[in-house]
């Protein structure tokens, strides 16, 4: 769970719950699923911010 620093280093945005949910989804993926779509754990914060922004 390397995304803790991302959660604690920024002020909480209004879409914080969607952001946390997106991070949980990305973290729950298996390494094979991640490799299939070509994302790495280092990309999780950026991808989660994009996912949270689209939901609203």
Which keywords apply here?
elongated; mainly alpha
Helical content (DSSP H or I, runs of 4+): 55-70%
**Percentage beta strand:** under 5%
End-to-end distance, in Å?
25 Å
SSE run: HHHH
Structural class: mainly alpha
Instruction: Note poorly predicted spans.
Output: none
Work out the radius of gyration: 11 Å
Largest β sheet strand count, sense and barrel closure: none
What is the mean pLDDT?
Answer: 80
Please give the count of helices.
Answer: 4
The beta-strand count equals 0
| Assembly context of the chains | single chain
Textual characterization of the structure:
By secondary structure, the protein is mostly helical. It is 68% helix and 0% strand. The protein has helices at 4-9, 16-28, 31-37, 44-55. α2 packs across α4 (44-55). The longest helix is centred in the middle third of the chain and has 13 residues, at 16-28. The radius of gyration is 11 Å and the shape is elongated.
Concise synopsis of the structure shown:
This protein is an all-alpha fold.
Sequence-ordered SSE layout with sheet pairings:
Elements: H1 4-9, H2 16-28, H3 31-37, H4 44-55
Helix pairs in contact: 2-4
């Amino acid at each position: 769970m390397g995304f803790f620093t991302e959660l604690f280093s920024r002020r909480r945005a209004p879409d914080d719950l969607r952001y946390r949910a997106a991070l949980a989804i990305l973290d729950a993926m298996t390494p094979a699923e991640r490799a299939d779509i070509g994302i790495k754990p280092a990309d999780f914060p950026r991808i989660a911010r994009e996912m949270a922004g689209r939901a609203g």
